[in-house]
Amino acid sequence: MRRAVLIAIPYAWLLALFLVPFGIVLKISLSDTAIAIPPYVPTLDLAEGWAGFRAFLSELDFENFVWLTEDDLYWKAYLSSLKIALISTIFTLLVGYPMAYGMARAPEEWRPTLMMLVILPFWTSFLIRVYAWMGILSNEGFLNQALLWLGVIGEPLALLNTNTAVYIGIVYTYLPFMILPIYAALDRLDGSLIEAAEDLGCSRLQAFWLVTIPLSRPGIIAGSFLVFIPVLGEFVIPSLLGGSGTLMIGKVLWEEFFSNRDWPVASAVAVVLLLILVIPIVLFQRNQQKQAEAEQ
Amino acid sequence: MKFKTLTLTAVMALATSAAFAEEVRVYNWSDYIDEELLTKFEEETGINLIYDVFDSNEVLETKMLAGGSGYDVVVPSGTFLQRQIQAGAFQKLDMSKLPNAVNLWDVIQDRTSGYDPENAYSINYMWGTTGLGVNVGKVKEVLGDDAPMGSMDLVLKPENMEKLASCGVHFLDAPSEMIPMVLQYLGEDPDSHDKDVIAKAEPILAAVRPHIQKFHSSEYINALANGDICVAVGWSGDILQARDRAAEAENGVEIAYNAFSQGSLMWFDQMAIPADAPNPDAAHKFLNFILDAENMAAASNYVYYANGNKASQPLLESDVIDDPAIYPDEATMQNLYITTPYPAKTQRVVTRLWTKIKSGT
Amino acid sequence: MGDIVSSTVFEPWTDPQAEPLIRFRNVTKRFGSFTAIDDLTLDIYEKEFFALLGPSGCGKTTMMRMLAGFENPTEGSIELAGRDIANVPPNKRAVNMMFQSYALFPHLNIWDNIAFGLRRDKMPKVDLEARVEEMLKLTRLEKFAKRKPHQISGGQRQRVALARSLAKAPKLLLLDEPLGALDKKLRQDTQFELMDIQEKTGTTFVIVTHDQEEAMTVASRVAVMDEGHLMQVATPDRIYENPESVYVADFIGDVNIIQGRASAVGGETYSIDWAEGQGQLTATSATSFDNGQTCHLAIRPEKVTITADRPEVADNVVQGRVHDIAYLGNLSTYHVELPNGTIIKAQTANTRRISRRSFTWEDPVWLSWTATAGVLLAN
Predict the structure, then answer these.
(1) CB–CB of B351 and A37 under 8 A?
(2) Do A198 and C90 touch (CB under 8 A)?
């Protein structure tokens, strides 16, 4: 009995917070837009019972999904989002790994402080931090002023409202999600393994490549997914830091929803985005599972 | 036991007093009122005022169409108001509760009736134009002293834009205003709902697109004031705010606003009461309060936008009523045009065209 | 104990012509203000099985890490085959190490673990495969080649670690507490296996251990260390029978230490005045003592005879009562309390069954030993 309750709780959670909302979005994606409240038809009228339900079902169709294939905007936006997510994940990894490595190698008594410093930005609103980057990156911003003062550049660099700014913003925002799992993996790493590798003829670099990297792989994979998945649907960072040319599916979704008031097409875009995300999430789950098995 | 009963009574007393304290929830644009008016309303009526702000019509509309927003008074712009009335989002005003409605200005009433027939659902709060905000010094530096600072030529001719690109140009991210503007420039009907006519805007915008730094509907205020950009196509009051911020900062930036000599879009922000407003009675009281000549004048003196209240005009300060950027002269007034909402299919064409211009896709 | 090694004629340290493989010359190692190794000089010869023995913190691990190249001496030099290795990094030394934790690479299978070092040497594929197979065979791991380290037992992991460190045929193999993680039975079997492999491969082994029994079993020579100093370096039998200090005597095996004052009787014989109301003890010593000098008589429990009656002829005799009996199966150790409260341990082999044991608690007994049974130590 208790066992059944214990199992039921996560499933109830999943049902209430994922499957039911997804069902609603899916239903809207199969509807048609209308000038009404809410702005789509049909709506389910439970008062009419079974007949009402059948009438409701008969009016649903896949028209909106067909529409997504007809305009190249959508697949280009998905593709561009995938590209941005992939590149930012790689950059986040390149920046985050050395930091995690440094933390894991730091003297024991420093580590809580370093960990604190990584987590500290979360104490401030994410929006405020992105706004701060607007101040740093603008033409008259701190970065350009500093570079001009140092004489590195003669003209201010156009950074804000470019993809470069988007990458900077994403890498900055998601860095802790990359650092923490890699740090966890490196922290568990037995230092004698590195010494053993050196003892067996590896240079420092070889030991890092042949032992440290493979053994921190679970952390790298976890961190990469934790960055990649949310960045794919990212909306705020590209709209604040990006230029008008930054095409991301989150923005397309916003425009369908707010500018076109086309909730059904917006829902269809969201459903497809979810399906695209399910693939990496499943891969991520499998990786976690394999890791758990390996540790047994 | 006695103690328990006491506490329970106390709690019930609190609960009832909370339920009976009348409140009104107002959802207005950000930076759009003198906050002293809010306190004044509470003092005069004893109604608890909950004031909340938004910064895009789209956000407001989504709340209206989703229903159950919980607001008593909202402030959509004309075209959005019209569509939301069609969707059944608003209730008709009870004119018997709005004695101050006599203060309304017939010139504006005439025009807003295009969105809200007989002005049955809304009253005008503020109105303005969409025009050019320029950093006078920088534009002169780039284009010379005879730069066309009040003409669409400044932002729609590639040769001008090419030079301006270096100091930064922002456009409003509002296709329903920008496309009519280009149509007006081309001599077409700016309110055209014809796909083929709308499509004519594309080559003009595409030609200047590479020189536009950003499409955004609010960042230009700060960007202009700080001197980050030198030209913005934006809303009159916002640009005037930028002008004042720059003046306050004494950073040597001089901002000016001009309606387009070719004719600018005129827009109206209308106060309306949602169909499902929890307290329509208090909502009427708030509207009537706003319609008071003195209150309306205070609001305009604060935000630098023209209002639709004739009786308030003698009470306006001279830097408002006498500024042609706020209250345009008769000739400019004749030149202003209005637009009506696009049907869903056309809206999609417009949005898509806009996305294509912005992102090249 | 110790017979196995001492019966061989392998004793290069007695040959003044022999070139040592490793030379520590006045090596000092400091970590901040802490001195781990203090002015230490030591030679280790080729094919030796050399044990560094001491309590934790004595500096034995630091010695080993300096040999491996993970630490450098603060002062002095270390030579390997006549060459100063101070600045040679670990990966360039013909030295391999077997780690206490084994340090097997968890992401590689057994085969790849063993091949790891060979791959770094860019050994041709055919030779590499042959060498790995040879190592697998040597350590009887052929069946487990494709398994991952977490899929095999502790003893098997220990053998993989050994195979991996031997695969490159190092001049010197360092073993850091190699058997520490094994249970006692497995440890004993493995000790002999280690000796066997050492003999087969002819590699010089340096083992670090805190287990004196292990050191005595496997090593050709044992260095007893304490606080960064070498207390004594000698063959296991000499360490046991002729400790040079109370520290060594006490550290290796069980011992009774009796403190007293020596007075020369003649020749190498001394009488020891050790307690009020007790007769003097007699002991022989090659080192000389001044009259009245403080001395310590160290005597192993198995060299003390316990009898019910006073023995007829004995150099030293004391009487006491059985205070405690430690039964170890093959042996029993009697703790005998003398009238002045001193406890002396005597050990006898249990050649009879326990029910027929001669003594029990509180029995009055006599303890006796010969003059040559103990060692007389100054400190």
Answers:
(1) no
(2) yes
Q: Is the pLDDT of residue C299 over 80?
A: yes
Contact of C103 with chain A, judged by CB distance below 8 Å, is answered with yes
Contacts of A211 in chain C (CB under 8 A): 105
Count each helix (H run) and each strand (E run) in chain A, helices first: 16, 2
Q: What is the pLDDT of residues A68-121, one digit of tens each?
A: 888 888 999 999 999 999 999 999 999 999 999 999 999 999 999 999 999 998
- Residue B74 forms beta bridges with which residues? B27, B272
Model ipTM? 0.81
CA angle, A51 as apex, A50 and A53 as ends, to 5°?
A: 65
The CATH homologous superfamily for domain C3-94+170-249 is P-loop containing nucleotide triphosphate hydrolases (3.40.50.300)
d(CA A270, CA C135): 59
Structure confidence by residue, pLDDT tens digits, B251-297 = 889 999 999 999 999 999 999 999 999 999 999 999 999 999 999 99
Burial class from Cβ neighbours inside 10 Å (0-12, 13-18, 19+) for residue C368 reads buried
Considering only CA atoms, which of B92, B130, B358, B108 is closest in space to residue B235?
Answer: B130
Q: C-chain residues within 8 Å CB-CB of A217?
A: 107
> Which chain A residue has the Cα nearest residue C170?
A200
What distance in Å separates residue B65's CA from the closest CA in chain A? 5
Q: Which CATH class is domain C254-377?
A: mainly beta
Token code pair at residue C162: 């050994």
Interface test with A, best of C85, C97, C121 (most A CBs within 10 A): C97
CA-nearest residue to A198 within chain C is C91
Q: What is the pLDDT of residues A119-178, one digit of tens each?
A: 998 889 989 999 999 989 987 789 989 999 998 888 888 888 889 999 999 999 999 999
Domains and CATH numbers, chain B: 2-128+267-328 (3.40.190.10), 129-265+339-359 (3.40.190.10)
**All structural domains of chain A:** 63-295 (1.10.3720.10)
- Other CB atoms within 10 Å distance of the CB of residue C82: 9
pLDDT of residue A57: 81
Q: Does A255 touch chain B (CB under 8 A)?
A: yes
